[in-house]
Amino acid sequence: MATAKKHEKYQRLIDRCKSMPPTPTAVAHPCDASSLEGAIEAGRLGLIVPILVGPRDRILAVAAAAGIDLAGVEIVDAPHSEAAATTAVRLVREGKAEALMKGSLHTDELMAAVVKREIGLRTARRVSHCFVMDVPGHDDALIITDAAINIAPTLEDKVDIVQNAIDLAHAMGTTDVRVAVLSAMETVNPKVPSTIEAAALCKMMDRHQITGAVIDGPLALDNAISMEAAKIKKIDSPVAGRANVLVVPDLEAGNMLAKSLSFLAGADAAGIVLGARVPIILTSRADSVLTRLASCAVAVMVAQARREAAKAVE
C-alpha cells in the first residue's frame, strides 16, 4: 500500500495517457535488460510503439536471456551505439517516429546525434532536460530543470530552459504553473549571479518574453516549496511555498538536488529532454520499470500537445 501511494503521481501520469494514441518511438541501442524491458512494457501498456534500433543479434540475445517477448516489435539493425543514435534520429526526421528513447548507450552519444546541425533534431529552442520527480509527501509531481544537459547556462539559455519546463507542465495537464528560480537566498545580491539572473527572468515574464506561468525568484529551496518557510521569511508571492517547477542555477546544483531527493527522500525521477523536434526519453540505468514508464508517459503527453498545436495552426 505504501509503495502504491509512493508511485501514485506516476500512475496518474500513465493513466492520463490511456485516452491518447501510442507514440511511435525510436529506442536507441536497447542492449541491456532494463532498457529493453522498459520499452517493451511501455509498448504493452499502449504508451508507445517501440522501434528498437541497434545490433539485431545482441537485442535478440538480451531478450532471450531476460525472457522478453519481442513478437511483433520492429527492429532496425545498426552495428553499434553511435550508429543506433544516428539511425534513431533519422527515423524521426523521416516521420517514422515521434519520440526518441535512450537505451543502454551514453547520453552524450544520443545527444551528439540529436544536436548535429544538418542531420539532427535542432529547433530554435535550446535543448534542456527536465526531471519529473515523484517525491513522497509532496502532493504533485515536481519538475526540476536543468540537471543533465546545460552545464553552466547563460541567462539567454535559461529563457529557453524555463519556457521548455513551462510547456512541459502544460502538456502534463498543469493549469497553474508556478516557477521558482532557485538560488542560495531569496534576496537579489550583486555578488551572487544566480540572483541577478532570477530577477531578470521574472521581469522577462512581466514583458511576456516568457509565457504560460507565474515566475518568482530568487528563492531558496526551502521558501520555494514550504509555505511555513515562506511565511517565516515574510515572502509575499504566488509562487513561494507552492512552486511546481524548480529552475536551478546550473547542472551541478540540479544534479545534487535531484539525487538528494532520490536517495535521501526516496523520490523517483523520470527524465525527458525538450527543445528538439520531438521529446527525448532520457532514462538512467538505475531507473525502475515504473520510472521508465513515467518517462514514456510524459513524452506521450508532450507529443500529443504538439499534435494538437499543429492542428490548431492548420
Describe the structure.
With about 325 residues, the chain is of the alpha/beta class. The protein has 2 domains: about 10-120 and about 275-285 and about 295-314, Rossmann fold (3-Layer(aba) Sandwich), CATH 3.40.50; about 125-275, Isopropylmalate Dehydrogenase (3-Layer(aba) Sandwich), CATH 3.40.718. Helices cover about 45% and strands about 20% of the residues. The chain is built from 12 helices and 11 strands. Strands 3-2-1-4-11-10-5-6-9-7-8 form an 11-stranded mixed β-sheet, with helices on both faces. The longest helix is centred in the C-terminal third of the chain and has 25 residues, at about 290-314. It is globular. The mean pLDDT is about 95.
Second rung of CATH, namely the architecture of the largest domain = 3-Layer(aba) Sandwich
* Principal-axes shape call: globular
Low-pLDDT regions: none
Which structural class do the helices and strands define?
A: alpha/beta
How many E strands? 11
H/E element order? HHEHEHEHEHEEHEHEHHEHEEH
Strand content: 15-25%
CATH class of the largest domain, named Alpha Beta
What is the CATH topology of the largest domain? Isopropylmalate Dehydrogenase
Our count of helices gives 12
Kindly, what is the distance between the CA atoms of the first and last residues, rounded to a whole number of angstroms? Answer: 47 Å
**Main sheet?**
11 strands, mixed
| Main β-sheet, spatial strand arrangement | 3-2-1-4-11-10-5-6-9-7-8
In CATH, the homologous superfamily of the largest domain goes by the name Isopropylmalate Dehydrogenase
Helix percentage range: 40-55%
Average pLDDT score: 93
How many structural domains in the coordinates? 2
Rg from C-alpha positions? 19 Å
